[in-house]
Amino acid sequence: MMRSLQSRLVVTLCACALGLAIVAGVVSYAAAFREAYRFQDDQLLQLAALVDTRNLAGADHAMHGLPIQDHDYRLTVQRLGGTFPVTLSDGFHTVNTGDHTWRAFVRTIGPDLRIVVAQPTEGRNEIARNSGLRTALPIVGLVPLFIAAIVLTVRRAWRPVQQLAAEVDKRRDTDLRGLDTQGAPTEIEPFIVSINRLLSRLDKALDEQRRFVADAAHELRSPVTALVIQSENLDRALAPTALDTETRNRLTKLKSGLHRTRTLIEQLLTLARAQSAPSVPATPLTLLPAVHEALEDVFVLADRKQLVLDLVDATSSTPGRSQLRVAGSKRDIVTLLGNIVGNAVRYTPAGGTVSVRLSATGSDVVIDVIDSGPGIDADKRERVFDAFYRATEYREPREHGGEGTGLGLAIVRAIVDRLDGQVTLTDARPETPRGLHVRVTLPNPDAHAGAGRTAAQAPHSTPSSNA
Hints:
One of its GO terms (molecular function) is phosphorelay sensor kinase activity. It catalyses: ATP + protein L-histidine = ADP + protein N-phospho-L-histidine. Its EC number is 2.7.13.3. Keywords: Kinase, Membrane, Phosphoprotein, Transferase, Transmembrane, Transmembrane helix, Two-component regulatory system. Residues 155-207 form the HAMP domain. The protein has 467 residues and is an alpha+beta fold. The chain folds into 3 domains: 5-143, no CATH class; 171-276, Helix Hairpins (Orthogonal Bundle), CATH 1.10.287.130; 282-466, Histidine kinase-like ATPase, C-terminal domain (Heat Shock Protein 90, 2-Layer Sandwich). 50% of the residues lie in helices and 16% in strands. It has 9 helices and 12 strands. It has helices at residues 5-50, 56-64, 121-141, 143-170, 189-237, 245-276, 287-304, 330-347, 408-418, and strands at residues 76-79, 91-96, 101-110, 113-120, 284-286, 308-313, 325-327, 353-361, 364-371, 422-427, 436-443, 465-466. The strands form 3 sheets. The protein has a 6-stranded mixed beta sheet, with helices on one face. The chain has a 4-stranded antiparallel beta sheet with strand order 1-4-3-2. A two-stranded antiparallel sheet has the order 5-7. β10 (422-427) and β11 form a beta hairpin. α6 (245-276) packs parallel to α9. The longest helix has 49 residues, at 189-237.
């Protein structure tokens, strides 16, 4: 059974059109056949009325002298008693004489004179069949046009549903606005209303969940911070020789766990802010200062691992070109880049490189972060944007980098979605280690003001900061 309503409707309508066309063709053929047969009978009747009974032999000879190639079409006029028996009554008869079957009309002229006007039925039937076919064929020939019209009409009627499905597919997973019912077919409008109610309930549930996470993280931040401070004070208050080695190790692990818990709480708060912040038009922001601030936050970690932290502005080599700008707040951009570059620094082995490249293409600003770490397999690249998911077997934390929280890329996706941008992950190079290439594309607010951006020129490296 076909699951597609559109296909089912097309097949049903086409079957109905074909069935009706067959019935109409048969009825038209039968009607035309009978009409042609009746017309030929009328010809026999009229000919019998016009026959000159004084010279029947001459009339019959004249009939046979007509320029007709097929003998099945010839008429004969003669007295009864020869080919046709005298027992025939007046009127129409179908007579079989052995060689032919005749359609005959018998007329009594006088007491001793009865005539017959006859024609072979082979010719008559062929004429009637041709007449019926000529009547039925146009109906049969229009069937493909009927089917084509049905298919086009059904597809046109189904277009609003397809447009609605395309609109839903293009939405981001964070866009839970109700679907527009204006212009939607009446039959599916109740379905759209039900979906809108479901989206409203889902949006409310997700909002409550985000508020709960934010409230819980906020409530936990103060006591955890207090515990971190107390552990630091305890460590400073105790002399190095006051504790044995095992107790000292336990204190170190306690401090590390408290620091990790505080980092996780801060990331949870950042994620909650990124997901719940309203999507309002932002003032255009110059990108480069925000990039510098984000790099300063990870510079110490990069220096500890002896990484080369490289910043490349591909637009700075063009004289007179304005600085790149994006539509977003500085905190969003710093948080966005801080998480991407922080992940790159954390998962890149000591002595590696992390490059940040800024460029413009068309109406977009492009930020590329490329590292020399182990990379992420293609089947894991979409899942790493989920909260708390970490492809640890591919990007293990390094000795100097600490342990991640699994929230960095979830925060990145939330901010990029709110800024109406895109983020993609690819391999930095084909050979091992593959590295990771993170590309963030954000709308350029100056592109719509006439300052169109061209593709990036050959990269011009600013002096690399050898961390």
